[in-house]
Write a structure and sequence with these properties.
Length: 418
């Protein structure tokens, strides 16, 4: 009795070992097997792969142990494999591993004439790739580096180079390169996602693109994401990050208004201009007075060179004949040019004058512009200037008369000083 019991235990152990995935002992990363029943023509989707019972051995008057089933396996990337499996056929295996990803084992094959349709029972195990193992495999498969050619000026392109190196003796296919840029840095020209169809074994691929900055500054370009598929598994590899310094002037300007402390009919204006970049610029500041006002004293225009991190102010006062609701305080305009010829225009926000508190502060200041950056990186082309000026409402003859007066006084002062 004891001998029979031992034999039963041994038989169970042998059966269990026979049904275990072949590669389980080698790496221990196969998930628990799941069993399925497939009738002739049936399909199941297992982790993105379609397994179909394509055909069976010829049916006989009764079922035999040497029957087999022919399976077709179709991957997400349209790769196709075949597997002929049998339980007791010495010429055919009872299991097959597909691309190191699926382990399919035949548990039962039934093909007799006394049933409506042949069918098979199979067990499927999925290879589970852990994050650490995936990272280790990727690092020994694909090497990625990113470099910049050199730092750039605000009106220049900066060139970024990405190098991919296949470290293995097999091709890497279907590589997608996804680049993420920090705010105010754009691709120039604008391009879509970069794609490489095939990277040969041990070969290198170099990709170069250019960027332009909307504003000068120190930019950190994040790591580039590389995505590719191997044996139905999607992997990600990342490059290093890189720093890019963009040189140039960065002119910021604000315009404020207050009621004069001694005369409630007088408004005091201040235009503050600061160069937040790392290059000097020549600026021409011109402020337009509010309508129905009379200039008293101060300065409404200036021509000077402003160095990095330096600030200059224009202050002046005007007498108001009357103050009405929703009067507009026009923008101050600052035109700038650096030593390399890069030029642009900055306009302060316009304001609505609503009511005035007893403490002399403006009750409500509402910006009339929306989504307009403080610094417009525009060159001096006529079409671009026209587009900018179209956004600024005209005040009739006020602007042209003030320009004429300023120009006239400048000529007179230069003649007297001469």
């Amino acid at each position: 009795m004891m001998k029979a019991y031992v034999c039963i235990i041994l038989a169970i152990l042998i059966l269990a070992l026979a049904n275990a995935p072949i590669a389980a002992e080698e790496n221990g990363n196969w998930e628990e097997r799941i069993n399925y029943t497939l009738y002739w023509g049936d399909s199941i989707d297992v982790n993105g792969s379609l397994i179909t019972a394509h055909d069976f051995s010829k049916a006989k008057p009764f079922d035999v142990d040497t029957d087999y089933v022919m399976l077709t396996i179709l991957s997400e990337s349209s790769e196709e494999w075949n597997a002929m499996l049998s339980i007791n056929n010495s010429a055919l295996p009872d299991s097959k591993i597909i691309k190191g990803r699926l382990n399919i084992t035949a548990l039962e094959v039934v093909t007799g004439n006394d049933i409506p349709s042949p069918y098979t029972k199979i067990g499927v195990s999925i290879f589970n790739v852990t994050t650490s193992e995936a990272d280790s495999w990727v690092n020994t498969t694909l090497q990625v580096s990113k470099t910049k050619l050199k730092n750039a000026n605000i009106d220049e392109r900066a060139y970024i180079t990405i190098q991919l190196h296949n470290l293995r003796g097999s091709n890497i296919e279907d590589i997608s390169i996804n680049e993420t840029l920090p705010e105010n840095l754009i691709l120039d020209p604008e391009i879509e996602d970069i794609h490489i169809a095939d990277l040969s074994s041990y070969s290198k691929e170099v990709i170069q693109y250019s960027v332009k900055a909307l504003y000068p500054g120190n930019y950190t370009i994040p790591p580039t994401e590389i995505r590719f598929v191997n044996k139905g598994i999607t992997y990600f590899q990342y490059s290093n990050s890189t720093n890019l310094i963009v040189h140039g002037p960065y002119i910021n300007a604000t315009k404020t208004v207050k009621i004069n402390e001694t005369d409630p009919e007088v408004l005091d204006f201040t235009v503050n201009v600061k160069n937040e970049g790392d290059r000097a610029a020549h600026i021409r500041v011109h402020d337009e007075m509010i309508i129905d006002s009379k200039f008293i004293d101060g300065k409404t225009s200036a021509n000077l060179v402003i160095f990095p991190e330096n600030t200059t102010n224009l202050s002046y006062s005007v007498h108001m004949n009357s103050i009405h609701s929703y009067m507009i305080v026009p923008s101050a305009v600052i035109e700038f040019t650096d030593a390399k010829g890069y030029s642009g225009t900055v306009r302060t926000n316009r304001y609505y004058l609503n009511d005035i508190f007893e403490n002399g502060e403006l009750d409500s200041i509402e910006e009339n512009y929306e989504n307009i950056p403080a610094q417009m990186n525009t060159t001096t082309g006529p079409s671009e200037d026209a587009a900018i000026n179209a956004d600024i409402p005209s005040y009739g003859n006020i602007r042209s008369i003030r320009d004429l007066v300023d120009t006239t006084f400048k000529i007179i002062n230069e003649a007297l000083s001469f």
